[in-house]
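[SOLVED] Predicted holo structure with zinc ion

Edit: marking solved, answer below. Original request kept for reference. I posted the sequence and ligand SMILES and asked for the 3D complex as structure tokens.
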Amino acid sequence: MPELPEVETVARDLQRRVAGAVITDVDVRWDRTVRHPEPPERFAAELRGARIQRVGRRAKSVLLHLADGRVMTVALRMTGALIVAPSGTPDDPYARVVFHLADGRQLRFRDVRKFGRIGLWEGGGLHRRAAAPGAASRAVRESRDPYRVGDVFARHGPEPLARSFTAGRFGARLRGRTGRLKSLLLDQSLLAGVGNIYADEALWRARLHPLRTANSLSEAEVRRLHRAVRAVLRQGIANRGSSISDYVGADGEPGDNAEQLAVYRRTGEPCLRCGREIARIVIGQRSTHFCPRCQREPLLWEGPQA
Ligand SMILES: [Zn+2]
């Protein structure tokens, strides 16, 4: 499943390729891909003539900012991809939504397993302070209409690569939490964009066992984890993402980061730091990979350690 670096790569590719493009028509071929507005005919009608001003990202969604202020969100989920197809490219049977552009190209939302979702929203509310950890998305649940795009992300935590996301702020969000580090890193209300791959990589880099609880971390360990999370995400972006299963960039090419991963899906292979075999355990139904020597197992009586 694409995480922050993969979605960021798609957004940057699209910024280069479709910023300024005008949407002339939209084919919705799988109705459930369109989350908002309904029905799909309305979604298509509201996009006709719209100009894509710029492309960005929030959490694990691509954001297409339209010139009139509205924002289209694309959640890639398991197998979704946004592909720019030059005019004359053969049709793709897995294209669930096709945006026809005025210059003859198509922006295709390709999604084999059909879990991806696209929405079109009024602008605004994206830059308000992130929700408190564990907060519910009240606006969306009460189905206020029209939603603003900010409401879609109301229960998401801060962006880990934002300048404002300091170690102090991370520590404040972790304070008093009794959850396991692996589960907390996957909690999108604590931190947006981290998934299974980058959670395992960050914990290995920070030399923290995935079963450690947040409230057992010393200040030095919080700083280490904060640095590690940002480093593995930046490395993922630099390598255009990790193609573990279906992920491809907007050029249809896989990313290069899978070969750079230290622990994820390297069970039984030597730790790059100490040579010990990488182990795999399951935490909260998620495969978790770590080095049993570098990432020492927490003991019940153990307090914070430097
Ligand atoms: Zn090791």
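OP edit: The mean pLDDT is 92. Thanks to everyone who chimed in.
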